[in-house]
Amino acid sequence: MMNPIKLVRIGFLLLFLISLNFYASAQKLRIAVAANAQGLIRKLQADFKKQTGIETEAIIGASGKLTAQIMNGAPYDLFLSADTEFPDKLFAAGYGLKKPKIYALGSLIVCITTEGDIKNWQALIASEQVKKVAIANPKTAPYGKAAQESLKFYQLESKIAPKLVFAESISQVNTYLQTAVVGIGFTTEAFLYENSDKAKLKWFRVDPGSYAKIEQAVILLSNASKTGLDRATKFYDYLSSPSARKIIGANGYHLPK
């Protein structure tokens, strides 16, 4: 017959393991999301919960800043970046459980809050009429990098350098546009789908030939093994599902093949 003390110890151990499992299952999946996908992620979260019952929490920020947070121990389970460079960097450094995959292709647009011919934005941006031009920080925000590339392509960067206002993220660019702090801003086409006043916006799609393709990737992070790898993997796989692709394609993004 087993020693009663051993039985008690085994009982406590089982209770401890059960409580750990309950805690892990009760925790929300923590998803780091690039600021450009702030509106998109809310729709994906709702659809994912409807299909699986799994709760998620989105942490929004510039891709570069979120990458730094992850490398400094931030407990995120997945990361939806606005590019492939930051997820590839994380994977190469051992922070990923699966190789990053592209879930969306972004589109850069230019918006104006002043009067003028938006289709001729290259001339408008260099005119005295426009005093301030907002782009996201090219070092941390892929859409800011794309905007900078486009300005260089059209040989405008040096001409308008005194006008440039560098926002912390694409969300801040959007705020500048909504409050007319700047005359022109470069942002993501997805902004049109999350802005209730989009009908009032004057915008034009920037020629994609003027900047590098914006491939947005998701990476399953190492932290997921601590908080629920099965649940995190379900969301990682969900992004390639017909349901998720339909939502992504209907909110200002192109779909990867």
Intertermini distance: 64 Å
* Helix segment tally: 11
Structural class: alpha/beta
Record field, number of beta strands: 10
What is the typical, i.e. mean, pLDDT? 89
The general outline is elongated
Q: Over the alpha carbons, how many angstroms does the gyration radius reach?
A: 22 Å
Helix content: 40-55%
Q: What string gives the helices and strands in order?
A: HEHEHEHEEHEHEHEHEEHHH
Low-confidence stretches: 11-25
Strand portion, in percent? 15-25%
**Lateral arrangement of strands in the main beta sheet:** 2-1-3-10-4
For the largest beta-sheet, the strand count, sense and barrel status come to: 5 strands, mixed
Topology summary:
Blueprint: H1 4-26, E1 29-34, H2 38-52, E2 56-61, H3 63-71, E3 78-80, H4 85-92, E4 101-105, E5 108-112, H5 121-126, E6 133-136, H6 142-153, E7 164-167, H7 170-178, E8 184-188, H8 191-194, E9 202-205, E10 215-220, H9 224-227, H10 229-238, H11 242-249
Parallel strand pairs: 1-2, 1-3, 6-7, 6-8
Antiparallel strand pairs: 3-10, 4-10, 5-8, 5-9
Helix pairs in contact: 2-11
